[in-house]
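Q: What structure does this chain adopt?
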Amino acid sequence: MSTIKFSDLGLSQPVLRALAECGYTEPTPIQEAAIPIVNAGLDLIASAQTGTGKTAAFTLSIIDDIATRPSEKGDTPLALVLAPTRELALQVDENIRAYGRHVGTRTAVLLGGVPSGPQIDRLRRGVDFVVATPGRLIDLVKQGEMILDDVEFLILDEADRMLDLGFVHDVRWVADRVPKPRQTLLFSATMTGGVRSLASTMQTDAQSISVAPPAAVADNIEQRVMFVAKADKADLLVELLKGDDTERALVFTGTKVAATIVARHLEQAGIRAEAIHSDKSQRQRQRALEAFTRGKVQVLVATDIVARGIDVEGISHVINYELPEDAENYIHRIGRTARAGKAGVAVSLCCVEDVSYLRGVERLLKTPLIVFEDHQWHSPTVAACLAASARAARQRARAGKGRGSGSKWAR
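A:
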């Protein structure tokens, strides 16, 4: 176990004080590995699973650096953080303000879906950090309201998600307009070929670190799967959420329509719930997220828009009402619980239609999920379907080996 402390990483007393107030006791592996590299002014490409403290890893040193500048700071930003979603941008901005509370760090967050006027006013008052989604940032640059001339630190957060959402050209557009020399930091939950290709065009002699395997799940997350007919999912969900051990839950659906329907069903069952998805306005999404964060609602029902975009303390359960088509999104979803070293539970409700997605998750994890059968809606049909799928896969694998080893299929 590491004995490194935040005070060993060259951070100033005001920043150390803020970290203590945030409840941070010692650096996570990504923070321990990244902060010295950022301190040294080097470019960095870093990979770590969700919930490991990547935001602090790339912001703490920059906050310290900017805080040492002359008191007559300029009005244009020195650091620019690009984030793929509005929720993640808001979370990063909140973290920067918390870490920099004792050094007067000035921030602005630029998001689409809300009026730009207040954001422009904030920029005109002078900022050190800007956290932005690509579309709104580009709009304000083109209007001459966002000046990139003095940016010294360019950070790309959740780079793989940025590429998944089709922002690669926007990111390149921004990077081409941020002057060099600069320090470019790229953080990602997964390190795909696309991410590395993007990094190669933005960075110079970048250091590379990875502190967790691509499919790693935090050890303190208890993972379960429950077999259930599709028609019984809503009733099973209500039973789970009314359990004594469920304090605050994040429920994931595959579609926006499903999120709305599930939230409405929970409300009718007497469970305080809100839905959040991309058809909601930014104001509605922020209001729902704030209600969830403050405990005014027990359950947030969401699509994958928040699989990486929120960091809310006290989420005891993540429930996959519908399993994701992309198995990697399972990792990001369940990473919303068991934050900051706490324990959490991840439950997946699997009907026949979800079996192929469950198999994808188990292949990615290289282990089967624990099946929990002790509930009144347990479906033997789903269990049989999963077993049949596994048998078929084994048969295909054996047939493939036969074709490749001199059988008649290889001729």
